[in-house]
Write a structure and sequence with these properties.
The chain starts with a helix and ends with a helix. The chain folds into 2 domains: 18-69; 108-262, Ribonuclease H-like superfamily/Ribonuclease H (Nucleotidyltransferase, domain 5), CATH 3.30.420.10. The protein has 10 helices and 5 strands. The chain has helices at 5-13, 21-36, 43-52, 59-68, 147-161, 175-178, 180-189, 205-216, 227-243, 255-265, and strands at residues 108-118, 121-130, 135-142, 168-171, 192-195. The protein is elongated and about 80 Å long. α3 (43-52) packs across α4 and α5 (147-161) packs parallel to α7 (180-189). The protein has 269 residues and is of the alpha/beta class. A 5-stranded mixed β-sheet has the order 3-2-1-4-5, with helices on both faces.
């Protein structure tokens, strides 16, 4: 071990370092939050979590704490376009223009599709997010990336939330969203379609960030040998994301906490 004999015996005689009960509790909480996030919590989010638990901790101390406890976050990979449009389909106007902060719930939703790789082959996930709270209000996963995939995600979201007519749904120009079947569904539900510009990933940046967190902060931290295992992992993350994951856009509250705080000061239900 390249340690001198005298240095080794000096180390043996040195008394162990004592830590307070509060520090021990801090270490345990930090490890618990980090493990719960599947090793995806950065120092900013960990600091927020610890402060909510009553610990008086700043940015520098949180970074040193993560270093001491060897809490290392893996970096995400770059964004990749997942869907392409059929040029014969109609494209909706961009009603958002990167304005991702509606004034209330069920005013603007956004959605997209992403690829998920398993040991048995690919799966495809479509989501619907309420941009007000960043809550995932509908999703569907399948082995085929069809129009039916995005329709099922939208129908689930609509049945759960029952939004008023005039709701805006924003997506990219993928063939699933520009198809006649999907446009017909939106018309039947009283939903207005909005689509981003060609190749402009920032036009749906909030959903893309969600996919990044899902895949590189959760799913890819463990092996995904089967499609059933992948479905279970996605379901677990949806619960974690909606119920526990803090968002700066929500005043450092989870989507569900943010919506519940709204209910306390309004008649929305």
């Amino acid at each position: 071990m390249q340690v001198s004999r005298s240095g080794y015996y000096a180390w043996l005689k040195r008394p162990g370092k004592l830590i307070t009960a509060e520090t021990l509790q801090l270490y345990r909480k930090a490890k618990t939050f980090f493990k719960r996030s599947r090793n995806s919590l950065g120092y900013r989010e960990l600091r927020k979590k610890l402060r909510k638990e009553g610990f008086n901790i700043g940015t520098y101390k949180t970074r040193k704490l993560m270093e001491k406890l060897n809490l290392v976050v893996k970096q995400r990979v770059a964004y990749k376009v997942t869907t392409k449009r059929k040029h014969s389909d109609t494209v909706a106007d961009n009603l958002l223009n990167q304005n991702f902060d509606p004034e209330g719930p069920n005013q603007v939703w956004a959605g997209d599709i992403t690829y998920l790789k398993t040991g048995e082959g690919w799966m495809y996930l479509a989501v619907v997010m309420d941009l007000y709270s960043r809550r995932i209000v509908g999703w569907h996963i399948d082995t085929r990336m069809t129009t039916g995939l995005v329709m099922k995600a939208m129908i689930k979201a609509y049945n759960i939330r029952k939004p008023p007519k005039g709701l805006v749904f924003h997506s990219d120009r993928g063939s699933q969203y520009t198809s006649k079947r999907y446009r017909k569904l939106l018309n039947q539900l009283g939903v207005r379609s909005s689509m981003g510009d060609v190749g402009a990933c920032w036009d749906n940046a909030v959903v893309e960030r969600f996919f990044g967190s899902l895949k590189y902060g959760w799913l890819l931290k463990v092996a995904q040998p089967t499609r059933e295992h992948m479905k279970k992992g996605v379901t677990e993350y949806m619960r974690y994301y909606n119920l526990e994951r803090l968002h700066s856009a929500n005043g450092d509250q989870s989507p569900v906490q943010y919506e519940n705080s709204l209910r306390k000061v309004s008649a929305w239900s």
